[in-house]
Design a protein that fits this description.
By secondary structure, the chain is mainly alpha-helical. The chain folds into 4 domains: 24-101 and 123-222, no CATH class; 264-311 and 326-479, no CATH class; 485-616, no CATH class; 640-726, SH3 type barrels. The protein contains 29 helices and 7 strands. The strands form 2 sheets. Strands 6-5-4-3-7 form a 5-stranded antiparallel sheet.
Length: 743
């Protein structure tokens, strides 16, 4: 690829400048990004290897097949070197980040292509450039918000950078340039290079989001613009092209506005719950606590201080050793607090201590929240057991910081949501003792029980650590799932193609008793041509043509007495023989056998034309009896067939529910023996009516048709799991329960 492409090569930039020390705040980002991109690139190379192998397997000629195998060999030999080169180039980006903005624009102006220079660009280079530009443009649009924040923060960290000369070593164009430079060592043709770029886009560029988010998080932790708000440059019109943004509003600002709107919604819901609880007290005739002269109302810091002495788990529920032992435990929090108040005795003014209405509502709400959590079927049982241990710590959090229910971003609330979301894929059969995810959830709960002293920042720390762990695990699982999905698509499509070809040939050949040489050509030779034509029909549209060859061959082997039919026979046969030979040569059919087969076929066709030799053979052939139109086919149905029709009619309503399941949704299958397992819908292969499900690690666990899934749902053996945020679903359930009680 020549220098006049729109991609800036990094080699020139590195040679022009010295290797500067990386700012301290960026070192951790560099190490994380280099390692993460290395993992993603391995997935891309694995996919390239699979794609080239499949192309070689389906090649039309030996030369084409050798070309793909040579490309595979070249990439396998130099793969490690390319990966190392790419990672070194990315690391160098952090030492000498390319400049953007006005200065960089002036520098790149000289290298822009004009009409004369463009004519010198080869077709291959132009095709590669178009693919790269499309990849970069798509990623810049998709990750616009995180890229803008990251560029702003990097421009503060790097000396010499500013708002007019921003830098961002993680910009997609720089990473793509690093990859293009790394693959210069590969001696492969343009088609293989485009396959390589396509997989790089799919596995690396499309997954940049998690690395961009992680880089932003690290800089925020380092205190670099922790509260990002973009206002644009003074005197310049704001960019309103991003979807969902208005003029003068950046994507980050849109996210802030959305978060603020969500917060208002949660606050309104919490206030609605309090009003309903107050209405219940009024209907019960309970007077306000402040109006009772014999009661000393305890709340706020005083109540928080009393709760501080409360053990994280009630004495009767203490679990020694393994926190996951036993079943989920529901604690009567109101009773626990009342016992705590009774132990304090009368206050200094001789009055009886009692809770104020606000704190009592909070305690009741926490109780209702955990009742929902422990009854929630969507939560896996092992995670339910662990979360049940957090009732008293969450109560302490809520009493001290009342924004838990009114603020969606509260650290303790985020942590509970993350634990529940991560555990949705758990099955009863999972091996807890050796599972990293379960160990991590167990460790989080244990640290809260052992270390929480009222400081809510512990939840924030644990939430960040847990989400980092999930990001790493999800990255590995997504790569495995991608390979599983592509493998299943190829396997199922091939299986469907083979079944279609076999059924069609069997149906056509069953009507005629053809000679063995003819059957051999169709079943052992032409069937391969039909198989490939079916697989490639969406691109080459040759499937109907291959079926027509079969029909023409059978027709030509019939005896034809009519002069018009015999004239047509003379016109059809030469093209038919040519099509048969060309198709069999395309699938690399044995050349020595091919000549012999074609000779036998010509003999059969000649005999059919000369005489009625085939007529005698056809008399012995089984003939399909025409169906009696007046005969009721139901009378010939077996009891099993009639039962199947009733079943199909009964599942009609469940088919719509199956179609509503989206890619990424979790479901649970219950087996006849009482066991169950959870899995995620990974792919829907429409041409084979096949739904492929994978486990948490991205490995295939089951594959079923739409009808089979509808039958499973009707029998109660398939449940679609809800995946909304746990606390949000719990609050909705609490509101619904209070409304029904009020009604």
């Amino acid at each position: 690829m020549n220098k006049q492409s729109g991609i800036h090569y990094l080699r020139e930039h590195r040679e022009a400048g010295s290797s500067n020390p990386v700012p301290a705040q960026v070192v951790r980002i560099r190490d994380t990004v280099v390692a993460g991109l290395g993992d993603l690139l391995q997935g891309a190379f694995d996919a390239v290897d699979d794609s080239l192998f499949e192309l070689a397997n389906n090649a039309r000629s030996n030369n084409e097949q050798n070309r793909y195998f040579e490309a595979m060999r070249e990439i396998r030999i130099k793969r490690k070197g390319v990966e190392r080169h790419f990672q070194n180039a990315v690391a160098q980006l952090f030492a000498n980040p390319p400049r953007s903005g006005a200065v960089a624009a002036d520098e790149s102006l000289a290298s822009q292509t004009n009409s004369d220079s463009l004519s010198l660009v080869g077709d291959d280079d132009l095709e590669e450039q178009v693919a790269l530009n499309a990849m970069i443009t798509k990623s810049r649009v998709h990750f616009q918000g995180p890229l803008l924040q990251l560029q702003t923060r990097f421009s503060v960290v790097y000396p010499g950078a500013s708002e007019d000369i921003p830098v961002n070593p993680m910009a997609p164009e720089h990473l793509c340039s690093a990859f293009v430079e790394a693959i210069q060592a590969l001696e492969i043709q343009i088609r293989e290079r485009l396959i390589l770029l396509k997989q790089f886009d799919r596995y690396v560029v499309s997954n940049l989001g998690m690395l961009l988010d992680e880089a932003n998080r690290i800089l925020i932790q380092a205190g670099v613009i922790p509260n990002f708000r973009y206002h644009g440059k003074a005197g310049k019109q704001q960019d309103s092209s991003a979807p969902g943004t208005t003029a003068g509003q950046a994507p980050g600002e849109t996210a802030s506005a959305a978060s603020e709107q969500q917060g208002h919604h949660e606050g309104a819901m919490f206030e609605q719950i309090r009003q309903m609880l107050a209405h219940q007290r009024a209907n019960a005739g309970i007077p306000p606590r402040s109006s009772d002269p014999n009661v000393h109302v305890i709340g706020g810091a005083e109540l928080a201080g009393l709760l501080g002495a409360l053990p994280q788990q009630p004495p009767g529920e203490q679990v020694s050793g393994n926190l996951s032992a036993g079943k989920p435990v529901m604690v009567d929090l109101y009773q626990v607090v009342q016992q705590l108040l009774a132990q304090t005795g009368n206050t200094s003014d001789g009055k009886k201590p009692a809770l104020n209405e606000m704190d009592e509502d909070l305690i009741n709400l926490v109780s209702m929240l955990f009742e929902f959590i422990l009854d929630d079927y969507n939560l896996s049982a092992p995670v339910q057991v662990l979360i049940s241990r957090l009732q008293i710590p969450i109560l302490k959090v809520v009493i001290k910081d009342k924004t838990f229910f009114s603020k969606a971003t509260h650290p303790a609330r985020r942590l509970l949501n993350s634990l529940a979301r991560a555990g949705i894929g758990w099955s009863e059969s999972d091996e807890k003792a050796r599972d990293k995810l379960y160990e991590q959830i167990h460790a989080v709960v244990a640290r809260i029980l052992n270390e929480f002293d009222g400081d809510v920042t512990l939840f924030e720390t644990l939430c960040e650590e847990f989400e980092q762990f999930l990001a790493r695990e999800n990255r590995k699982a997504s790569l495995v799932e991608q390979r599983t999905r592509e493998s299943e698509r190829g396997r199922i499509k091939s299986q469907k193609a083979q079944e279609t070809v076999d059924q069609l040939l069997q149906k056509k050949l069953a009507r005629y008793k053809l000679q063995e040489p003819v059957r051999n050509i169709l079943l052992n030779g032409w069937s391969r041509v039909m198989f490939l034509a079916y697989l490639r029909d969406d691109v080459e549209h040759r499937w109907p043509q291959t079926v027509r060859v079969v029909d023409d061959l059978i027709w030509c082997l019939h005896p034809h007495q009519d002069d018009e039919e015999r004239d047509q026979w003379v016109r059809v046969v030469p093209g038919l023989l040519k099509s048969l030979r060309a198709g069999l040569e395309e699938v690399s059919y044995n050349s020595s056998k091919l000549d012999e087969m074609m000779s036998d076929l010509k003999h059969e066709l000649t005999e059919a034309f000369r005489a009625n030799a085939l007529a005698e053979a056809m008399e012995d052939a089984p003939e399909t009896e025409p169906e009696d139109e007046d005969e009721d086919p139901v009378s010939h149905q077996t009891a099993i067939q009639r039962q199947q029709e009733l079943e199909d009619a009964a599942i009609a309503e469940f088919v719509a529910q199956i179609d509503a399941i989206e890619i990424g949704n979790w479901v649970e299958f219950n087996l006849v023996n009482g066991a169950s397992f959870r899995c995620k819908l990974s792919a829907i292969i429409e041409e084979a009516d096949s739904f492929v499900f994978v486990n948490r690690m991205g490995l295939k666990v089951i594959e079923k048709s739409r009808t089979d899934l509808a039958h499973e749902m009707r029998r109660g053996r398939l449940t679609v799991l809800e995946q909304g945020a746990l606390i949000d679903r719990a609050l909705d359930a609490v509101v619904g329960s209070l409304r029904s009680n009020a009604g």
